[in-house]
Amino acid sequence: MGPLNGIKVIDMTTVLMGPYATQALGDYGADVIKVESPDGDVTRQIGPTRHPGMGPVFLNTNRSKRSICLDLKKPAGRDAVLRLIRTADVLVYNVRPQAMARLQLGYDVVAKINPRLIYAGVFGFGQDGPYAAKPAYDDLIQGATALPALMAQTSEDGVPRYVPNALVDRIVGLTAVGAICASLVHRDRTGQGQRVDIPMFETMASFVMGDHMGGLTYDPPLDKGGYARHLSRDRRPYKTSDGYICVIVYNDKQWESFFAATGRADLRDDPRFASFAGRAGNIDHVYAELARILETKSTAEWMDILTHADIPVMPMHDLESLLSDPHMVATDRFPVVDHPTEGKIRSMKVSANWSETPVETPRLAPRLGEHSAEVLREAGYSGDEIAAMVRDGVTRTAASR
Questions:
Q1: Domains and CATH numbers, the chain
Q2: What does the H/E/C string look like for 277-322?
């Protein structure tokens, strides 16, 4: 049933950041009702598909939800979503607040009909600064919070690049889950809902600078910032004689074990290796030497040697080999399941485990409007009213498509 069983969430989000957050809430047991436009979430169109509108990005960001299709630009569509909001615990949106105001769905409106509602917005920028109305996307926020600049410092060609992952959307989405759950705790203690904003720029600025503030922490600054170990060019997967391997030798005990396992007792007397402070002050030299040593044996040999020496080591996977990692296989992290319309698909288990409120197999991602009639009936609409809404283009059902 999950720890959030009994919590009703109105999901007015699209693309990735908001849907990723609401998927987590659904995975944790909440009843998540995804409100989609007649065209559906654009991520339905991304990637290879067996059937139109059911792409892999959508499938992997919208499980544990029900889908209702509503045209919010029509008065009847707006009235329907307001009726859903009346009995909801949480509303999540990821357009700019100005867009919600234009739809007449701002917090000042919905709080009057449901004072217990948690009204959560995930969007680009805090509303008390000059960027309040600016649009934002993952790539833009990566650039604005120095990630490409840091990537350039560690690359041989010095070219800034984005991280090849929707890092911002997922980090901000997870931050939103925590903020929403905290707001629910407050609501349960006081009976009072509230508006909570989770801005991308501010969230990621803290995320990045938590590592890289460095000497900029002090006033006046002691340096230009940056965590030297993270910025070392040899902090990377290391080349072996036949591939790559991921190794981190960090504390004194691990380095002692590494000296013994590799027969490099000579390094024990080198002040650049002998202490944590020495290694930190000479990290580029330390990692470069580590890279040279690891090139001398095969990946399998190093996996065996370093595992027996209790030195942190992992294989470097690609997207395909990750699925067959023995730990992932043993824990059935990516089970193949039967989707009602898409046939066999590879799903992803919820990573958290609860002793008292375990989560069940999540509801698989819905077709556009799959639950429109069901949700409207729950909200009190009659069969004739639902049929009229379909006829007038206010809603669509899977059958009407």
A1: 8-207+352-396 (3.40.50.10540), 238-315 (3.30.1540.10)
A2: HHHHHCHHHHHHHHHHHHCCCCHHHHHHHHHHCCCCEEECCCHHHH
